[in-house]
Amino acid sequence: MPARPIALSCGEPAGIGPEIALKAWEALGADLPFFLIGAPDHVPGGPVEVIGAPSEAAGAARRGLPVLAHDFTGPLTPGAPNPRHADSVIGAIRRGVKVVQAGEAAALCTAPIHKKALQDGAGFAHPGHTEFLAHLAGVERVVMMLASDQLRVVPVTIHIPLAEAPGALTPDLLRVTLRITHAALIRDFGITRPRIAVAGLNPHAGEGGKMGEEEITIIAPVLDALRAEGMEIAGPLSADTMFHAAARAGYDAAVAMYHDQALIPIKTLDFDRGVNVTLGLPFVRTSPDHGTALDIAGQGVANPSSLIEALKLAARMGGT
């Protein structure tokens, strides 16, 4: 049994977060204790154990879903975010960071938020969950990894239009992304000598400049410099040859140049069990790789697989 529990912030309570939290407890029970930071009455049925401190989660998990009660104002309607909940959703995230940084929890797992509801209700100024966590941690740069048993992949540019990706791809951004990824593979995944495969931006990795020059002018010089420091890096590689089984056996993580280049392979390989991991924070943070799913919230049909995998990975990365 883990020495410390995993903290799970509630995310948008009108989404599927509360019901998949309960389903995750039903699957994991006391074998992997975690506690939900949220309103106990938001959990749709099932046994709930209100706790006063994270240290009570392991015992409570034998009887029900442990919930560290967090105040919410206003009614809850599944599928319909209430802007009055925004401050409480943000507060639950803050509280999760606080208990992890205090050592009361081994890691933070976050249920999905609804950014528009937070913007409408609380003037949420951050592009997303990840950037808010970086702000709370006082970290300038973080990296998004999608991970499953079959693949770990990192996009260098993320939530921007595809037309803007080439201009956003700079040597500094690529260099920092690779350094953070390399350090996290050692620290968080226990890989002594990480092997990283790096995709090119253009088809066929530019084909010697015939299909684009970013591989020659931006990517290759950064990779050469990091290899000279001792990193084991392959690339720039043609992205269409990187993700079949034999290729994946040759690296511990793949770094892609833009969002879909990274996410399409992992969602094709393991759609229900991918986990979003934030690298570069001073604590472990994982999240299910899906959104709030407002269209099915409250119907009891939401698949908890990604949350279960996110909790398991948080426990492994948190050293519990």
Automatic annotation (TrEMBL):
EC number of the protein: 1.1.1.262
Co-factor(s): Zn(2+); Mg(2+); Co(2+)
GO MF annotation terms: 4-hydroxythreonine-4-phosphate dehydrogenase activity; cobalt ion binding; magnesium ion binding; NAD binding; zinc ion binding
Signal sequence range: none
Keyword Zinc: yes
SUPFAM superfamilies: Isocitrate/Isopropylmalate dehydrogenase-like
UniProt-listed GO biological process terms: pyridoxal phosphate biosynthetic process; pyridoxine biosynthetic process
InterPro entries cross-referenced by the UniProt entry: PdxA, PdxA_fam
Record: residues binding a divalent metal cation: H159, H204, H259
Pfam families: PdxA
Cofactor remark from the record: Binds 1 divalent metal cation per subunit. Can use ions such as Zn(2+), Mg(2+) or Co(2+).
Binding site for substrate: H129, T130, K267, N276, R285
Annotated pathway: Cofactor biosynthesis; pyridoxine 5'-phosphate biosynthesis; pyridoxine 5'-phosphate from D-erythrose 4-phosphate: step 4/5
Keyword Oxidoreductase appears in the UniProt entry: yes
Subunit structure: Homodimer.
Purpose: Catalyzes the NAD(P)-dependent oxidation of 4-(phosphooxy)-L-threonine (HTP) into 2-amino-3-oxo-4-(phosphooxy)butyric acid which spontaneously decarboxylates to form 3-amino-2-oxopropyl phosphate (AHAP).
Something else known: The active site is located at the dimer interface.
Listed name of the protein: 4-hydroxythreonine-4-phosphate dehydrogenase
Originating species: Roseovarius spongiae
